[in-house]
Amino acid sequence: MPEWGYLIIAIALIVILTIIFFISFIVYRKTPLPKGCEDIKIDDNKCLSCSNEMCQFKKRKEK
Q1: pLDDT on residue 30
Q2: Which of 9, 21, 34, 57 has the fewest CB atoms within 10 Å distance of its CB?
């Protein structure tokens, strides 16, 4: 196969993967939250007993 054939295959593969990424991202953003997960609150008692200093919930609460 000539070099330009490999180039066309590579470009087509990149374009296909980019299209798949954008479609999956759009579908992900439009998916509604499951029932019961709309208003999840942070439980203060569980956060105080946790020893993980890198926890994103603790960092968010401190702000």
Answers
A1: 93
A2: 34
Q: How far is CA 53 from CA 42, 50, 57, in A?
A: 16, 8, 10
Q: 43-62 pLDDT, tens per residue?
A: 777 777 777 777 776 666 55
The CA–CA distances, whole Å, from 40 to 16, 34, 36, 45 equal: 37, 11, 8, 15
- How far is it, in rounded angstroms, from Cα 63 to Cα 5? 55
